[in-house]
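Subgroup meeting minutes
Present: P.N., E.W., G.H.
Scribe: E.W.

1. P.N. recapped why we're keeping a running log of single-chain structure predictions: easier to compare across weeks, and new members can see raw inputs and outputs side by side.
2. G.H. added today's entry (103 aa).
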Amino acid sequence: MNESEFHGAVDAVLARVETALEREEDLEVDLESGILTITCPDGTRIIVNRQTPNREIWVAARSGGFHFTWREGEWRDTRSGDELFASLSRILASQAGENISWK
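Output recorded in log:
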């Protein structure tokens, strides 16, 4: 994946997350300069952003930091191999008490 393709792919991920979470009344979602900040009801935050030099998407949450790389047609955690949206669902359920559908 070249840099242009990477940016397009990450923009699509961020837009998908933003669109899905804007429907949730208890979450505040802000996408600015390629950084998506999700503020949970308790004031904690989940940050999703791009790491261009490594061609990764990084997620920072109360439960830790996660790096996702494009592998086998999906964004996969570099350690566990978990898929990005499945991981975000678990993080949001744990940290915000929200069950999110990624339709």
